[in-house]
Amino acid sequence: MRNLTKFTDVVRDGRFGVYVAGNPETGEFVLLDLDGDNPTEAVVREFFPGSVFVGVIAVDANGEAQSAVDVPLSVDAAKALSQAYACHVENTVRAFVEMPQIANA
Predict the structure, then answer these.
(1) pLDDT tens, 69-79?
(2) Which contacts qualify for 23-26: CB closer than 8 Å, 24 or more apart?
């Protein structure tokens, strides 16, 4: 059984949390936002056949990305996930900033 402490600590203490699923052998990964419903391994397998739980990534209170992984990753896979995560955070912030502001009535 997997010790979930390292995963929950990263997500609990961070912002912009993502669940990382994928196939480390093929280098195909997907980042699933943890701000809504948390994905389960069964759901990931259903929608992303051949994928397994890889880990989680979030930004801590100091603005540093933190991660916890459950499977070994190649250097190239780690770099690709880092770049994808940076894009995820940028797009999330951009969407928030570009939201129309509602004036107090």
Answers:
(1) 999 999 999 99
(2) 23/50, 23/51, 23/52, 24/52, 24/54, 24/71, 24/72, 24/73, 24/74, 24/77, 26/50
